[in-house]
Amino acid sequence: MGFVDSQVLIALALSLIGGLSTSIGALFVVINQAPNLKMLGLLQGFAAGLMLSISFLDLAHNAINSIGFLKGNLWFFAGVIFFAIVANFIPEPTVAPISDVKSKKKNGDEGGKDIMKKHRRQVLFSGIITAVGISLHNFPEGMAVFLGSMKGLRVGLNLALAIALHNIPEGVAVALPVYFATQSKWQAFKLATLSGFAEPLGVIIVAYLFPSSLSPEILEGLLGSVGGVMAFLTLHEMLPLAFDYAGQKQAVKAVFFGMAFMSASLYFLQTSLPEDMSL
What we know:
The chain is an all-alpha fold. The protein has helices at residues 2-31, 37-67, 69-89, 98-118, 120-151, 153-182, 185-196, 198-209, 216-246, 248-272. Keywords: Membrane, Transmembrane, Transmembrane helix.
């Protein structure tokens, strides 16, 4: 029981890193109300590279090696279908379009404030809906971190890092409308931070729903499904955002840089962690 509890604590700590990254996104907004969206796009491209590398070169690869090509693929595409259904019911919120930010800069702060006064209620509502949407999106991410941690520290750590980078723009997506609507930096920061706490909540729920001793085959299959979830999340939500804000050429470079970085970190962690921690 002690071993399971320690696994839950490790997964909680890792998911907190991912969850609190929404606060970093909120800080972008609080410090500068027109955040550098190109930098956010590049960051999202880099995170997409990390996620694709984890999905295909680590999780799906290991599942196919452990339980066979057919079973590995079935589990992988089960994850894809699961998250496609989730995404269908909970549309992924977006950061304010570049044109809005640019026109706000051109019209000056007063013009921007007048527009926001007229639509304050709708904008605040959109911020709250965004926060709810992101919280629901963070649930399966928390579950993914927990399942990764059950497999070994290396897998959990890599997933937490990729999810943390993915959550920064999500924090911006929550904080931007809330800040414009309320003119309160604290409200924007608070709501973005709270939306990130769904991730450790996902860990707690899955930790007590799943039996403490999963068979290795089921665990490998579930991790293959996590790979499918991550691949869908990346191609459906992260890449389009990276293309929009950083431009296609720059975003693609960032993606491959992210993949190379994750491949190097996978190699480093495999060779440096003790055998029992890097299964």
